[in-house]
Structure formats: structure tokens, C-alpha cells
Write the C-alpha cells for this entry.
Amino acid sequence: MSYLSYTKFINVKRLSVVCFLILCRLCVFGQTEAEKFKEKLLNNKVQYKELAAKELKADLVKHDFSKLFIHADNSIVYGFIGDSYQRIRVKIIKVTKDSLLVDTYHVYGKSMVKNNIDEFTGAIKISNIRRLKNMSYGVDDEYKNEGLKGEYIILADYAFSENKGQSHSGTFKGVCESDFYLDKNSKVHYDDIDLGSSDRFVNNQFVGQWISYDDKLVKRCNWGDFRIPNSGDLDIGAGEFSPDDKYLRYGWQSVRDNDNAENAKWWK
């Protein structure tokens, strides 16, 4: 090989390495918040939710999990949209399991930002089901002798589309986590075992984005039961969700005041 050919070969190899490193960096920094949320759970980086390594989707996906997503009263489902933590209220009204695709659920619901209410339809598709390594038995071990078979988490991808004819409409996309336990008869239950004993209790955690149909607006949009995932300095509550004063003007004043509006059936 001539010196010129050798030099060219070395330069091509260097360029390939540089391109590969750039691609790796793009892959790392290009991760969405939702992808990071899923990865953190699956890699046991959430201290209070250590998961067993065995993947159980194939074994447990036969169950109907539809009731998990509509279990909680909407008055304790909190959410934000955008960097200012503008409040969004999300109500999943109906969930049905697909008759053929056992890991897929069809969803109908409504969202409200300020006074704007939009309908949405879409799907939740289960990607993982894992068991918690250390099961909780509640206050004073009240569930210890109930024969429970275990506590589990579902990780799923969701995509909900608002009606294009509505104002300020777009799509919700991301990852959700829903927690359940199986009783002695293998019946699925919304996991509220630690509801009365843990300040960090949460369920149905949705992490993702809202994207306008013209792609001009992309906003963070997270919501969940009792607490909001990745809510930064919005939530300053100790025993329960409580918004910081600086965000009250973005739709949170009624939560602070414990106003009756929190119990309104705004989606009807």
C-alpha cells in the first residue's frame, strides 16, 4: 500500500470513529424525558422501586389492566404542561383492552387547560411488566396474611390524539408507569397498599410531550395520581401535593385553597 493510500485509509478510519462518537453523543443527549424515565426504572435507579430482573410481560399480559388507569378520583390527578408548569387536568374516561393485541388498550378521555377542554383518543401499549423485589404489606403489615402474590409495575408507551377540529389541539406522547398487585386469586388490583403510610406514594405516572399538529409547539406534559413525575420545584408538599406560590397563577390557586372546583366533573 502506498503512503498516500495508507494516509487516506487512516483518515477514513478516523472519520468513521469521529462519526461514531458523534452518533453516540446524539443518542445519549437525544433521549427524551420519557425514555430516560423508563430507563431509570428498568435499571433500578429509583431507590424505592427496585425491580426484579425477570421480564414478566409474556406471563402477565393476559390480564385486563384497563381499570388501573381510571381508578383514581380526578381530584387527585395532577398535571402540568410547558416550562411554566401551567396546570393541565387529564381525565381518562374509558379504557378497553384490544381483543387481538393483548398488550394494547384503547383510550378515550378529555384534557383541560384553563377553560379549554379537548377530547382525545388513542392507545396505551405495554412494553414491560416487572415485579418489585421487596413487597410492602402496608401499615402494621395489614396485608401480610392476605396471600398476595406480589406487587408489579407496568411500563407502557402511550399516544393520544386530540380532535383536529378543536382549538389548541395536538397529540400526547410518552411513557407511563402503572402499579398493581395480584391477590391470592391472581386478580389485578390498583396498588394503593402504601397510600396511607408513604409520603412518596404515586401511581399512574405519565411522562411525555404535547405536540401541536403543525409541529410548531412541543411542550413537556406530565401527570399522575397524587404526585406529578419530574415536577421540579412545582411540588413543595411534604405529605401531599402542594404547589409552590410562584406557580399559583398558572392554574394552581384552587388546589392551594382546596376549592370545591377541584371536585367538579369538568369532563361531563
